[in-house]
Request: fold
Amino acid sequence: MSYSNHNQTRRRLLQGAAATWLLSVSGAGWAAAAQVIAVRVWPSSAYTRVTLESNRTLKYKQFMLTNPDRLVVDIEDIQLNSVLKTVSQQFQSDDPLIKEARIGQFDPKTVRLVLELKQATNPKVFTLDPIAEFKHRLVLDLYPAVGRYDSADDPLLALLEDYNKGDLESKLPPEAPLAGKAGRDRPLVIMLDPGHGGEDPGAIGKNRTREKDIVLQIARRLRSLIEREPNMKAYMTRNEDVFIPLRVRVAKARKQRADLFVSIHADAFTNRAARGSSVFALSKKGATSTAARFLAETQNESDLIGGVSMSGDRYLDHTLFDLVQTATISDSLKFGGKILKQLGKVNKLHKNKVDQAGFAVLKAPDIPSILVETAFISNLEEERKLRTSHFQQQIAESILAGIKAYFASVGNRK
Reply:
């Protein structure tokens, strides 16, 4: 299978982004000055993201005001246009952090954006270079300043706080229990990772089906199935349409001392004839096929597409690659084999063995981890199937059967 036309895949990857796109209809002055061409807002329980997309890098200054609490961002060397004038319309009344937005031409060369806040907030403002279908972006991530959401049920917000402080590693346990050896005093913990989310929609089918939506639905179905098992507990890296950095997904699994990590995706390729389910594990020595290497490259771009500030974040800027244990990868391959066998009962297999590559989301050094490509969303027939509750349930049941088979095999070796 040829994996050429990489750029064509990336162009299709981001079609149909979920937020409202506000496109400027005027091209006047495009080469002369920076213009904001789109505004997107992503509210979630974890944080709210505001993105200003422009044809050039935006220069900005930020500061906070009180009584009431406000975040002020001055954007330099631009003029207020029709896109920016509609900023206030993009915010929802149920946004947990932002009460309202105002924007205006502060001086002849500066546009001022004011976000009035509902509670104390820690903003993180940064710019992103063009990637895939996105041009330059100015990103405003707003996190709650008080009240750490670090309960056993969902420590996601606490991990995001630590991530933004560059202090994620120190808050994680030294190691997770070996799969299948959790003991009778605790359930077997499965971390489910619906891929993509928020500004990163993942692959898009011809009928506008978004990968991020489908895999979230499958993960929710799988979680419900796992919760019915007497000695299993399921957690999710995300349970809403929100962008979560890859390293935070891994960190959440380690924080919960997960026994297994399952990242759920829906594949895409330039050739719509490509079809079938696949399972991937991490490789320490490089990809085992061109297909696996291509897929790892596209999946690892998620942080760039979703928007992660790389500056000064030592957890993101370094890699866990050398820390991954051979035994963990071996267990991942065995686990993946069990899943693949079950998937073959409900769908054609794209490959009959577990493939390997350097997937960032699979780099927990102590947790057997796999990435499941449920089907090709770029294939018309498989896109149709992925949209049905019946096929989603079949996939969820197959993954659960593989999980149970793997734990049974581990138990049999004791």
About this structure: Residues 1-31, 148-153, 311-324 have pLDDT under 50 and may be disordered. The first helix runs from residue 6 to 13. The chain has eleven helices and 14 strands. The CA atoms of residues 103 and 113 lie 5 Å apart.
